[in-house]
Amino acid sequence: MDMGDIAGNPIAQLAFLILSAAGGYQVWRKQQPTDAKERADSEGQIAALGTWKELLEGERAARLKAEERADKFAAERNEALKELWEMKGQLKAMNETLAAQAAELSSLRDQVRQLKEQLHAQ
User: Fold this and answer.
1) What is the pLDDT of residues 55-84, one digit of tens each?
2) Half-sphere exposure (CA, 13 Å, Cβ side) for 116?
3) DSSP string covering 65-102
4) For 3-55, what is each residue's pLDDT tens digit?
5) Which one in 5, 25, 34, 88 has a CA-CA gap of 20 to 30 Å to 70?
6) In angstroms, rounded to a whole number, what is the distance separating the alpha carbons of residues 52 and 103?
């Protein structure tokens, strides 16, 4: 098709006008989605940040709860160890008392034996 054909032919002019408008529309439409994509991407990032923030807060709360449980466990363990050491001390004192009483009993048995021997010797 020659440019001279378009100038004298109203249908060709109309077709050229329609094709030009369609081409312009296509160029315009190709640029529009990028703005929409950018908006959607920004909105998605904001939503993702909100989700991440909620997850982070949940993790922090769980970590605090775990630390509280660990502290409580450590306190209970320390109390149990303290009581164990006290019981070991009491047991040691009882063993010393028992050993002293056993020695005294042995001494008394020796005295009784000696007295019996003296009694039978007379």
Assistant:
1) 999 999 999 999 999 999 999 999 999 999
2) 6
3) HHHHHHHHHHHHHHHHHHHHHHHHHHHHHHHHHHHHHH
4) 556 666 778 788 888 989 998 888 887 777 666 677 777 888 888 888 999 99
5) 88
6) 75
Rounded Cα–Cα distance for residues 83 and 23 (Å): 89
For residue 71, CA distances in Å to 9, 18, 66, 68, 80 come to 92, 78, 9, 5, 14
- What whole-number distance in Å separates Cα of residue 49 and Cα of residue 55? 10
Q: Scan for tokens 């929409």, then name that residue.
A: 36
Scan for tokens 């100038």, then name that residue.
7
- Per the structure block, which two tokens stand in for 34? 């990028």
Distance of CA 56 to the CA centre of its chain: 10
Residue type, 13: Q
Structure tokens at 87: 């019981």
